[in-house]
Amino acid sequence: MSSVVLATAGYDHTLRLWEATSGICYRTLQYPESQINKLEITADKTQIAAAGNGQIRVFDVNSNDTQPINTFDGHTGNVTAVGFQKDSKWMYSGGEDGTVRVWDLRAPGCQRAYESRAAVNTVVLHPNQGELISGDQTGHIRVWDLTASACSCELVPEIGTAVRSLTVALDSTMIVAANNNGTCYVWRMMRGASLTTHFEPLHKLKAHTQFILKCLISPDCQQLATTSADKTVKLWNLDGFTLERTLVGHTRWVWDCVFSVDAAYLVTASSDATARLWDLSSGETIRTYSGHHKAVVCCALNDSAIDGRDLDS
């Protein structure tokens, strides 16, 4: 079993698995139906979900089988978000059809569908595993309480400006929303007596002058990464929201990023058909992953301990 699982995908209808250190692609999976919009790897590194147009396919990371182990149909249009519950019992997704969905990985069909009333661009799972948080094209952020099976909270940081990406700190103290204007809104997350999450505005960060395509809080909750249509990735210190570093090298839009578990490295995916591995202490590219023929719009990395407990300890 691989100790590091690194995957990229995009508009050339393929999912590629890479040796992170050498930059060699050791496996290519075809996805003939559509482009791939998002990737997510399970905590135990055994499965990878690829979200396309109308469906999500789940592949076995460690086998040579080119066919998916499972296909989840139900969304109409592009699936824009996908992720797993920490024990990989269920998967969640969001899509252009305006729904946020929950899928039991051991049963067929979609178990729950929540209506957001606008195209969903991003969905994250609260570390408490009990709430999904979605951001949509009209600028609404909604918290979906999975126990009550209802929307428990709604935020609109900038009316009419699409929320492109959401990220929640692993220590549950902070949430960041990035929008199409290049702005990040930061809230403190508080748990009230009712156990539903409350949001206290903390900061407004003008991170880029163009679209932010992804924002991500590092596993150690010290940094925020923002990737943009301006071809750069910026790293912000969460202590004072100051700019620590700008990663320059991609020649087109940077769509996605993922931190290594120790927050020392970052992998990015770009329309320039490459992914890059960055050393965050120097800001240098230490590996370029070349092989895709079209835009690379998503990447996934799991380099935690095999039992997936690194992030919990």
Walk me through this protein's architecture.
- The strands form 6 sheets. The protein has a 7-stranded antiparallel sheet, with no helix packed on it.
- It is an all-beta fold.
- The chain is built from no helices and 27 strands.
- It is globular and about 45 Å long.
- The protein has strands spanning about 5-10, 15-20, 25-30, 40, 45-50, 55-60, 70-85, 90-95, 100-105, 110-115, 120-125, 130-135, 140-145, 150-155, 165-170, 175-180, 185-190, 195-205, 210-215, 225-230, 235, 240-245, 255-260, 265-270, 275-280, 285-290, 295-300.
From the structure above, extract its key features.
single chain; mainly beta; seven-stranded antiparallel β-sheet; four-stranded antiparallel β-sheet; 27 strands
- Biggest β-sheet description: 7 strands, antiparallel
Structural class: mainly beta
The strands making up the biggest β-sheet line up spatially as 4-5-6-7-8-9-10
User: What fraction strand?
Assistant: over 45%
H/E series:
EEEEEEEEEEEEEEEEEEEEEEEEEEE
| Helical amount | under 10%
What is the terminal-to-terminal distance?
Answer: 22 Å
Give average pLDDT, whole number: 94
Count of helices?
0
Computed over alpha carbons, the radius of gyration is: 18 Å
Strand element count: 27
Overall shape: it is globular
Low-confidence stretches: 307-313
